[in-house]
Amino acid sequence: MGRFTRGGAMAGALVLAASLALAGCGGDQKKEVEFVGGTVATPSAGAATPAQSDGASPSAPTADGLTVSPADGAKGRPVSTEISADLPGGGKVSSVTLTTGDGKQVGGKMRLDGSSWVPSSALKYNTRYKATVTGTGADGQPRQGVSTFTTMAKPKSMIGSGLYLFDDRTYGVAMPVVAEFSPGIPKKDRAAVQKRMFVKTDPPQPGAWHWVSNGTQAYYRAPEYWQPGTTLSVRIALAGIPLSNGRYGNVDRSATAKIGRAFEMKVDNATKQMEVFQGGQLIKTLPVSLGKKSTPSSSGTMVVMEKKEKTVFDTMDEPDPANQYRTEIDFAQRLTWGGEYIHAAPWSEGVQGRRNVSHGCVNVSMAMGRWLFAQTKVGDPITVKGTPRKLEPGNGWTAWSLTWADFVKGSAVPVPQGGSGPLV
């Protein structure tokens, strides 16, 4: 078991994102991560999503009765601003055009609930924009409104963020969309942030967001594992979102990735065997050794987070001398931030299948470690059952350790039965 302190979990996440994604705070060999330039989309509940006001100035009605937001002449608008309109007595917006002062058009899409128009990328700081909204009133007559507004200067206080997803990569069927925030998102702000996290799946599959770790992470998953061959298109449109703690979102992140074949590992402490399934069919059974009594393995469904053909486990700063060691490891596959891995352990081959002797890891033979390493992808699930320790929420990508009913309880907005779809 590789050493990792829970207090350093956020740093490790921002670092595993350095090898997994894109930004990273320092960490030991177990925490190498990188935050992928990506964004996340949070399909929110079926309820209509209110337009992002971001503290904007109140909208002013135009001469023909169509009200545009931001109001004409508004200044200091967040770069996360969305365009909305109100037609008295009802009606429907048909188009929104947003241009910069020099006439350059900004792309964007309407939210599916029709509540607002979302620019396809964050607006620029200190920039003047002109929004033209057309629609049809309740009387069937065309309406148009125009508003010119200016965005705010770049704020000094921002949060850090990351997305554990790479463009053009192929992941396992249990790969959750994982968004990371440092510091965490205050509870009162999570709904607004979640409504700016967009996920689209092809073929379409419902999903939901779940917040963990004091708002430092949010996971997006479907009720069941992703269908093999699914394309995930994700945007976390965080740039410029004002938070109640005086900070702002730092950047938009986006990524498009694929889901590969169905591959799953199941470990039973009672038999000390791992069963490996591909496409729903059992393809191999192999002996394992799990964590000994003083350092038990976690029971629950985990996900392969990163893979290292060779690495070093160093626990020399552990307070208990019995748990201090520095060992070269082959075919290591991380499962938790706390340092649980699947890895080759030639020193325990004599007891694998019979007795638990590890520091919490799933020990396999050198031959089976090499074989598994060649088969797995980041995002492949492994379920361990029968150990005295339960998997801690947020200790790794724990999106699948909850039932769907419990998972949706972690959403900051209501989730319709069965899950929600894309927002735009």
From TrEMBL:
Q: Name one GO cellular component term.
A: extracellular region
Query: Pathway, per Swiss-Prot/TrEMBL?
Result: Cell wall biogenesis; peptidoglycan biosynthesis
Q: Where is the signal peptide?
A: 1-23
Residues of the region (Disordered) are 44-107
Question: What domain of life is recorded for the organism?
Answer: Bacteria
Keyword Iron-sulfur carried by entry: no
GO process terms (BP) = cell wall organization; peptidoglycan-protein cross-linking; regulation of cell shape
Gene Ontology molecular functions:
acyltransferase activity; peptidoglycan L,D-transpeptidase activity
Q: Compositional bias of type Polar residues: which residue ranges?
A: 50-60
Any idea where the L,D-TPase catalytic domain is? Answer: 263-385
InterPro entries per record: Big_10 (IPR041280), LD-transpeptidase (IPR050979), LD_TPept_cat_dom (IPR005490), Transpep_catalytic_dom (IPR038063)
Q: Where is the active site?
A: H343 (proton donor/acceptor), C361 (nucleophile)
Sorted alphabetically, which keywords does the UniProt record give? Acyltransferase, Cell shape, Cell wall biogenesis/degradation, Peptidoglycan synthesis, Signal, Transferase
Full protein name: L,D-TPase catalytic domain-containing protein
What organism is the protein native to?
Micromonospora wenchangensis
